[in-house]
Design goal:
40% of the residues lie in helices and 15% in strands. The protein has helices at residues 11-14, 41-53, 65-75, 88-99, 114-122, 140-150, 170-179, 232-240, 249-259, 262-285, 306-315, 340-359; strands at 28-29, 82-85, 105-110, 126-131, 154-158, 183-187, 208-213, 226-230, 290-291, 298-302, 318-319, 321-322, 332-336. Strand 9 (290-291) and strand 10 (298-302) form a beta hairpin. The chain is globular. It binds 4'-deoxy-4'-aminopyridoxal-5'-phosphate. 4'-deoxy-4'-aminopyridoxal-5'-phosphate is lined by residues 33, 87-89, 113, 158, 162, 187, 189, 213, 215, 221, 226.
């Protein structure tokens, strides 16, 4: 009798749940923390004209050096410490792939972005969760203690953290980086919406790795570009695990052109930050809603009956994210900041939904 082929798949993979996102068609889409602003048409045309001129039958340049150099300029870090990839999530996988031995302890604040724990498990690592504080901020003493106790191999922060929006300050990071030689991965997918970035610490701490993406503030989730910044010695090792030529001719060109429009990026970030403050203030005024301060382009809020509120919003054409399955967040929902008119529709629909749930019996 031959063993069934599924037996060849590692148990860590078979027991994992994978990443799922249910698709709903709603006119107002505030569930994935994307930018609410598309790339302007004239910039899209510029990119398309450039893509048309390029030779599609050739492989791109090895390791896309021109994009690496443009990003190094844009982000203020050295090109030999920078890796571009097909989305920053791929870089989380790569860093774990090159660093995680079976059983290696990886300290991950909880709740945080689900892929950190999922991928750690894929590579046989052991997730050491450290709960956020009651205010949904990072428990730095708890994290330092877990790193020491477990001799952690890696610590992963999303800063700002998805789905709570808290950040780790550079002062706190420094204390941690000085205490440990574990790799400290800071996923800054949302950092443009905050006043914090760990970028300036990379030169000082060779165990610090910072991830960035084009998917949020840069308004280009569709092109799938992310990048990593670290000490060149670390970057060189991570680069070995990268698939060559993973960045296609379209994404490559789009990234180069988008980088030339940092004025537009900054202006849009300002608008989103202003809207975040407006939505936060409005949520605080609604009875039965408890919003948490956020440094990102989304807000976490708690209500008494999250499933009902989530569905009530969908009935009104508004899609947000139900995060009740995350640890500690059994009453929480997360809304991305959209354009002003979308945010207003969300706020009105939320008030209406809450009013309806008061009068309707369970
Ligand atoms: N990091 C965090 C914390 C995120 O929430 C997301 C989007 N859900 C990403 C990274 C996505 O990154 P990318 O699109 O670059 O793969």
């Amino acid at each position: 009798m031959i063993d069934p082929p599924l037996k060849r798949i590692r148990p860590e993979i078979r027991s994992a749940d994978g990443y799922h996102l249910t698709r709903y068609d709603c006119p107002v889409k505030l569930n994935q923390n994307e930018s609410p602003f598309d790339i302007p048409d004239d910039l899209k045309n510029e990119i398309l004209a450039d893509v048309r001129r390029r030779p599609w039958f050739r492989y791109p340049q090895p390791m896309e050096m021109d994009l690496v150099e443009a990003l190094a300029d844009f982000a203020g870090w050295r090109p030999d410490g920078l890796i571009v990839c097909n989305g920053s999530n791929t870089l989380v996988q790569l860093v774990l792939a090159v660093s995680t031995r079976p059983g290696a302890p990886v300290v991950i604040p909880s709740p945080s972005f689900s892929l950190y724990g999922l991928y750690t498990g894929f590579f046989g690592g052991r997730v050491v969760p450290v709960d956020l504080t009651e205010e949904y901020t990072f428990d730095l003493p708890g994290i330092r203690e877990a790193v020491r106790r477990e001799s952690a191999n890696m610590v992963i922060f999303g800063s700002p953290n998805n789905p709570t929006g808290c950040v780790v300050s550079n002062a706190d990071l420094k204390v941690l980086l000085e205490q440990t030689d574990a790799l400290v991965l800071v996923d800054e997918a949302y950092a443009e919406f905050s006043d914090e970035t760990a970028r300036d610490l990379i030169g000082e701490y060779p165990n610090l790795i910072v991830l960035k993406t084009f998917s949020k503030a840069l308004g280009a989730a569709g092109i799938r570009i992310g990048y990593l910044m670290a000490h060149p010695e670390i970057a060189r090792e991570v680069l070995k695990a990268k698939v060559p030529f993973d960045i296609n001719v379209f994404s490559h060109s789009a990234a180069l052109h988008i980088l030339q429009h940092d004025g537009l990026i900054r202006e849009r970030v300002r608008t989103i930050r202003d809207e975040r403050e407006r939505v936060f203030a409005a949520l605080r005024e609604i009875d039965g809603v408890r919003p948490w301060p956020s440094h990102a382009n989304f807000i976490l809020f708690e209500v008494d009956n999250p499933a009902r509120v989530f569905n009530g919003l969908i009935e009104r054409g508004i899609l947000i994210r139900n995060v009740t399955s995350y640890a500690l967040l059994e009453n929480a929902l997360r809304v991305s900041i959209g354009r002003a008119e979308e945010n207003t529709r969300f706020l009105n629909a939320l008030e209406e939904t809450l009013r309806d749930s008061c009068v309707q019996p369970e």
